[in-house]
Amino acid sequence: MSVDIYVVGTGITSIAQITREAEEAICDSQHVLYLDPSPGVAEWLKQRCPVLTDLYALGYEDNAERRGFYDRMAAEVVAAALEKTPVTLAIHGHPRVGVYLPQLLDNIAVALGLKIRTLPGISALAALCADLGVDPCTSGLQSWNATDMLLRHRPVSADAPLVVWSVGVVGTSLHSDAPSRPERFVPLRDYLLRNYPASHEVTLYYAAPHVLAGPSIETVALGRLHEMADGIHRGTTLFVPPAYAAPICDPDLLAALDDPAHLESLIRR
Amino acid sequence: MRPPVQLVLSRAVFDDEFRAALKANPEVTLAEFDLTQQERELLKTEAGVRELMHVPAMVSPLPDMESQAPEVASAKIVPMAELGFAIRVTPYAIQHADGRLEVSADAVVERAVLPPIPERAPAGPLYGHNPKTTESQNAAEAVRQAAPEQRVEAVLQLINAIRSTDS
């Protein structure tokens, strides 16, 4: 299948987590447009594709709507693809985890008949699982964007881990690099206090941006979340461990789990 | 004589929506085991709850709840599903000879029905907007026809066209 636009993830820890298939796509591309300010990434990309565009250089402006930046970035990627294909959009982390731009490209691609192929990258969630020892397959996982959770009153169950994304930009769709006031995090704190006690310890997490740097992991009682305002930035993720274990609700299934006869009823030999 | 418990409540469901549901059903008799004093007051003043028992939390296996903790067991018959909530009472409760009822933290009310999905809920790229409307297709054609130096602006117009036309 011919591809017009590769959408690839560059991982979290600078170039150390770029996958082999992402590298192949980049080497195959006529033009690479990237969103990753990590040290060394631009140089690494330049060695593999001489036509390189830093989409961050389009410039974020204070008080402007973030969506406008994404529109402009998407337009640059599509314009490049219309010039000569394939092109690659390389995005920090996983290109489909917490990133609006590829969604935008999907619709433009449908309208213009362009083919997109996404190649996964190491996401902040993958890094969080590694650093905090979280296994979403065994303990379950709730995952909400901070602003969306408050906007829609997303349900939270205190018996499963909860990951809250984009905590540092909660409460607005406008961009600003200015530090947050503690009051910014009070609505989020209060929303979570409906389900967890104030003493419940939560973790403010930021994955290691470079192989020489460790992750940032700060634990605080939920009731004091707002006091951590100075340390909460755009890349901060909030991890809330369960407050209690979910009880067994189906004792019959529990009893059957180790029963060979039950297994026989589930399979064909 | 204390009234029979119809519903065992924990802070796991203590939110505005739940209190509103209670307000519509003030006759429900509640027990709780982990609410703060402030939350207890809210239930009475805001949700109009008249009876609110406190049961201490503990874990104690109870194989036959119907006979040994009838107050808690009877909670299961309250038709709360129509309010969007169901009752899940796990077999960890015990009623002492002196009448004290001890209930584990596993005895909770939980949501039975998810809130209705809004008609314009997020459903894929650009949240339900349609890239195949006439307006979008016209804008797409303009992109194809645009000179290279005009393509970025033409794509921005296409994005606006897609966004302005709900599917």
How many strands, what sense, and barrel or not for the largest sheet of chain A? 5 strands, parallel
Order of helices and strands of chain A: EHEHEHEHEHHEHEHEEEHH
Envelope shape of chain A? globular
- The tally of helices of chain B reads 6
3D architecture notes:
By secondary structure, chain A is of the alpha/beta class. In chain A, 33% of the residues lie in helices and 17% in strands. Chain A contains ten helices and ten strands. In chain A, the strands form two sheets. Chain A has a five-stranded parallel beta sheet, with helices on both faces. In chain A, strands 6-7-10-8-9 form a five-stranded mixed beta sheet. Chain A is globular. The mean pLDDT of chain A is 91. With 167 residues, chain B is α/β, with parallel strands linked by helices. Helix content of chain B is 30%, strand content 14%. Chain B has six helices and seven strands. In chain B, helix 2 links the parallel strand 2 (30-32) and strand 3. In chain B, helix 5 runs antiparallel to helix 6. The interface between A and B is medium-sized, with 29 and 34 residues.
Can you lay out the helices and strands and say which pair or pack?
The complex is a heterodimer of chains A (269) and B (167).
Chain A: E1 5-9, H1 20-28, E2 31-35, H2 41-48, E3 52-54, H3 66-83, E4 87-91, H4 101-112, E5 116-119, H5 124-132, H6 136-139, E6 142-145, H7 146-152, E7 162-165, H8 186-193, E8 201-206, E9 216-221, E10 237-240, H9 251-256, H10 260-266
Parallel strand pairs in A: 1-4, 1-5, 2-3, 2-4, 6-7
Antiparallel strand pairs in A: 7-10, 8-9, 8-10
Chain B: E1 7-9, H1 16-23, E2 30-32, H2 37-45, E3 52-54, H3 65-68, H4 70-73, E4 85-88, E5 93-95, E6 101-103, E7 108-111, H5 134-145, H6 151-163
Parallel strand pairs in B: 1-2, 2-3
Antiparallel strand pairs in B: 4-7, 5-6
Helix pairs in contact in B: 5-6
Keywords:
heterodimer; A: 269 residues; alpha/beta; five-stranded parallel sheet; five-stranded mixed sheet; 10 helices; 10 strands; 33% helix; B: 167 residues; three-stranded parallel sheet; two-stranded antiparallel sheet; 6 helices; 14% strand; disordered N terminus
